[in-house]
Amino acid sequence: MTSEALVETLREQDSWWFRVRMTPWRDLLCGRLSGSLDYRNAMTEFDLPLPLLQTVDEVVQRSRLWPRERSDVAAELCAHFADGLRAGHTVEELQQSFGSAKESAQLIRRSKVRCRSLGWHLWRRIWQATVVSAVFLATVCLFLFVRYVWAEPTITFDLVEEHDEINREIPEAERAWPHYRNGLVAIDRRRELYDAAGEPFSAIDVLDECPSDPRWPQVKEYLAEMEVPIQLFIAGGECEQLGFINRDPGNDAWTRWFNTHGWEDYNESGTPGCHILLAQTQDLRMVLRYLKGATYVALEERDGPRAMTLLSAMMNLPDHARQSFDGAIADLVAIAHVRTISQLIAAAVMEYPDLFSGDDLNRLSQGLEEMLGGRPFEIRWTGEHRLVDDFLQQSFTDDGQGNGQFTIEGIRLLLSHLEGIGEKELFPELSGLPEQAAEALENTKFELAAAAIIAQIADRRTVQEKMHELSELDFETFRDPLTPLDESQFYQETESLLKSADRERLLPVAVFYGTRFSHNYNYGRQVAWTNMIHEAALVAIALEQYRRREGKWPENLAALTPQLLLAVPPDPYSKEGALLTYRVEDGRPLLYSIGPNQQDDEGTPPSDAQQPWKSADGDWVLLPSSEPNP
Amino acid sequence: MQIERELMRGAGPVAVLKLLEGGPKYGYELVEALNRESDGLLKMGQSTLYPMLYNLEAQGIVRSKKAEADNGRVRKYYSLTAKGKRRLATDTKQWQTVTQAMLALGVLPPSANPALEGGAG
């Protein structure tokens, strides 16, 4: 057999891919699978027996060298064997003296590679460094992925279930919510009314202003048709307990009004505190609007008993709002209800005194005293602590010792906090955060950029301590009517955190509290205003009782105490501890606080008399009531 | 007698360089010469020789050149470079020093002479 034929037998095992690799680019581009770089071409020149050719072939194959290097090595080894045969050695002797093909291939490869150019070695080092870097990066990513992206929050309590458990204990017959709910479904909110010019409007827009709105006559007609829901609202108002239960099948028609898929989707178990829907709380405002509108109609029609029925039904609404959810938001709604009811009572008593009997006045006074458990009205803070704890449990893991690490779910929660930031703009420092965080979470849960953010965030205990610290300062803003929000310690601490280097480490705190309030709100002032409005309603009743007894208005409020009024209310804006200012002006009682500017402006009201906490000018006029004149 | 692998690793290159001092040689020639001149003590197979030659070439100690042999076949001849000659001189001196030390220690008998003499000079 010729050497060519023997070499061909070696080629029988070659793959198609091997032939491609052994063909120059030039030939490949011409469509020829020439295999001209095949080192075995060099072997055909030597007249060697098959075993020796196989040894050379094995060594060269194993060496994994470049084609030209392979050809060189193959030719040299073949020449060596050819010389050995010519010198009289047998095939077996030559194979034996050759040594291990595998070891030889390794050594040949190593030494041949050393012979390659400096440029190639440089390229190889760069490539190796790239591979090492990629492996290192992949390891870091894997670590971050496992440690942060896979970490799940540890949920130990459920705010929705806790709320519902309490309310399920209330007997169904004693629950106000079913009445309110049925009434709310019946009021047909989408219905349009038409003003004198034929322009459509919603009754709800007018019910805040009532008689002072030119569209009041049309709304009165509409309210006459709404007697069924109003009766349902009255029935609800007569119940002590709201008894609202999330995901109650009975709420189906009501929840569909809010575009939810039905009662099953309304505040599912485990819903984070910041995602809990409070449509029921908001809708209690609607109930109040209708009852207030109906009260004005009764006053205009001089129907005292009906007005008393409606006012009495309203007295429980603040408590119902407070029971709708354990949190500051529900309490703020409750306090707003106190304000509206107090103003309405003061206006009704001062403008329509003859509609109310002595007993009526006593009942109104007693109802006012008992609203929300009595004065002074304060925001409960237990629910806020619970919301902070819920935020922590929804965002962090828990190692059983009260510590843990932030999770991707926490980032999602922060994003939901940031969604409304454009409207608030309290802290410009937050402006870049939504984009950064959203980018980190774009498309997939397994975004490692989010893990990089998470890795910087402090542990659960550290975040918890800071959140509780700010929570306490936050509480102070509700109790302090004198300090504007942006001068409060809470605001300054939050702002300082947002500007500090700790912002990334305490990102959950920065976002949670940075998005808490807007400039438009000053809760301390709202609470103070409510307390004063409530006091003013009691004063109005006492003044009317005094007038009935004495035939004139008293010279001062001290004349009302202690029989008609327990004590003269102090002015919270007086640094000297002075009382609310009272005098009779133009034959009518005038009662006011000097307001946040702490100057007596002779009873001149601020620019927005109904929401005086929004401005610092003027006096806060309590009587006559800023409620529209019935 | 089989020379220890580590000892061979030190002795092999200097032995090859010494053989190349006499003029260019191809692989098989070197194997035969090593075997013959060291009485088989420094005999090495191709699996050791050729990687060693490639390494020496990579270090610039030897160079290779293809040339036609007597039988008309093209072979690869290895020869010393200037660097290789300097390296041989250095290695020879070192081996002589080691041999002297071995003599002084009695590892080698007093009658023993270094198997490889001289260097480039």
What's the topology here?
The complex is a heterodimer of chains A (630) and B (121).
Chain A: H1 3-11, H2 16-21, H3 25-29, H4 40-43, H5 50-63, H6 67-86, H7 91-98, H8 101-114, H9 118-149, H10 159-168, H11 177-186, E1 193-194, E2 200-201, H12 203-207, H13 216-225, H14 227-237, H15 252-256, H16 279-300, H17 304-314, H18 317-323, H19 328-351, H20 358-370, H21 382-395, H22 408-418, H23 421-424, H24 433-441, H25 448-456, H26 460-479, H27 489-499, H28 507-514, H29 523-550, E3 581-585, E4 588-593, E5 620-623
Helix pairs in contact in A: 1-5, 5-6, 5-8, 9-25, 11-14, 14-17, 16-17, 16-18, 16-19, 18-19, 19-29, 20-29, 21-22, 21-26, 22-24, 24-25, 26-27, 26-29
Chain B: H1 5-21, E1 25-26, H2 27-37, H3 46-58, E2 62-68, E3 74-80, H4 82-105
Antiparallel strand pairs in B: 1-3, 2-3
Helix pairs in contact in B: 1-4
